[in-house]
Amino acid sequence: MFKKSLHLALPIIILSLGLELIGQSLSYPPSKQEVVIDKYHGHQIADPFRWLEDTESADVQAWMHAQDQFLKNYISDPQQFQRIQSRIEALEKTGTNHSVPQKAGGKYYYNTWPRELRHALLHQRSGLDGVSKVIVDLNKILQQDKLTYNGFSVSPNGKYLALLI
C-alpha cells in the first residue's frame, strides 16, 4: 500500500521538498519546448509542451523513459527514499482533508478524510452557513480491504446519491 501511495504522491512530495533540495545539484532530464500558439477568444495562448500529448510518439516515449530513470535514480538512494517517506508521513498527520463541494438541490455535499480514520466521511450541508452532517460513514461500509471508494455523484435536485465503490 505504501509503495502505491508513494508512486502516486511522489511528484507532489518532490515538489514540496523543492526548497530543501536547493543547494543539491540535480540534473533533470531536458524537456524540449516548441513554439505552439493558439488563439482563444482573441487571446494568444502558448502551449510549448503540446508535443507531450502524443504519448505514442518516440519523442514522448523517450522523455517518459528519461523521467522514470531520473526518479528511479533519485529514490534508489536510501537517504532520499527515507526523506520522501518521512515527508509523506508528516503530511498525512496534518489533519483532515476536504474534497471540493458539489451543490445539488440547495445543499452541499463533500468528503472529509480525518487522519484517524481509514476511509472518507460524506457530508451534507444546507447552504453555505448550514450545519454539516455526516450522511455516509464509509468506514462502516468498506470493512473489506477489497473495496475502495472513488467518490460520489448527486442528482441535480439532490434526491439521489450514488457512491462509486
What can you tell me about this protein's structure?
The protein is built from 4 helices and 9 strands. The chain starts with a helix and ends with a strand. The chain is α+β, with helices and mostly antiparallel strands. Mean pLDDT is 84; it is low at 1-8. Strands 3, 4, 5, 6 and 7 form a 5-stranded antiparallel β-sheet that branches. The protein has helices at residues 2-16, 58-75, 78-92, 138-141; strands at 37-40, 43-46, 97-98, 102-104, 107-113, 121-126, 132-137, 152-154, 161-163. It is extended.
Attribute tags:
alpha+beta; 4 helices; two-stranded antiparallel sheet; extended; 165 residues
CA radius of gyration is 21 Å
Helix count equals 4
The helix fraction, in percent, is 25-40%
Q: Can you summarize the main beta sheet?
A: 5 strands, antiparallel
Order of helices and strands: HEEHHEEEEEHEE
Mean pLDDT: 84
Unreliable spans are 1-8
Indicate the proportion of strand residues: 15-25%
